Amino acid sequence: MKLLQIFFFAAFFVQASAHAAEASTCVVSDKEFLHQITSSSDWLDVHAVFKRNFPSCKDEGLYADGYTNLVVGVMATNWADLALLDDLTKKNAGFERFILRHIGASAGENDLSRVLHSAKVECPTQSVHLCQQIAKRCKEALSSQ
Questions:
Q1: How many Å apart are CA 103 and CA 137, to the nearest integer?
Q2: What number is the average pLDDT over the span 29-46?
Q3: Residue pair 73/112 in contact by the 8 Å Cβ criterion
Q4: How does residue 24 score in pLDDT terms, banded at 50, 70 and 90?
Q5: How far apart are CA 145 and CA 138, in angstroms?
């Protein structure tokens, strides 16, 4: 029994140490993160932020809200570039999950409504599947505000 307890303690310690090491590998400071969010204005910028920050940086709290405002803001102001977003998400399923996860209630109601309208009315033919997913997430976000 004592040996089993030592084994579980050792396994917990190794797992906790690995988690701490993983969390500390993020090379982006809070100041750099703020700069990334405020200086990104198109899908290539958003994709570059994603590639630099994930999976090593946190995606919770104020960081998650920052990503949400960035994603929904770029959608609202650059809808004409949706084909580029569609191409990027087709090449990287992780980026697609990131984009869809960050269409959320912490974004402004006006931007969410604008994106929902665009997804329903101005969807490029080759991006119908993505538009459907975007519209679904916008509806969910708007209903939870």
A1: 6
A2: 95
A3: no
A4: low
A5: 11
Give the burial string for 50-88 (b: 16+ CB within 10 Å, else e).
beebbeebeeeeebebbbbbbbbbbbbeebeebeebbeb
Q: How far apart are CA 107 and CA 67, in angstroms?
A: 9
- 64 touches 19 (CB < 8 A): no
- Predicted local confidence at residue 10, as pLDDT: 36
What are the residues whose beta carbons fall under 8 Å from the beta carbon of 140, sequence distance 6 or more? none
Name the percent of the chain lying above pLDDT 90: 77
Give Rg (Cα) of the chain.
19
- In order of 29, 31, 58, 85, 96, the CA distances from 127 in angstroms are 35, 35, 29, 9, 13
73-92: average pLDDT: 97
SS3 content of the chain, % helix, strand, coil (to 5): 80, 0, 20
Phi, psi (deg, nearest 5) at residue 57: -100, 155
Return all residues near 43 (Cβ < 8 A) that are at least 6 apart: 74, 78, 81, 84, 85, 88
* Bond before 55 cis per omega within 30 degrees: yes
pLDDT at res. 92: 97
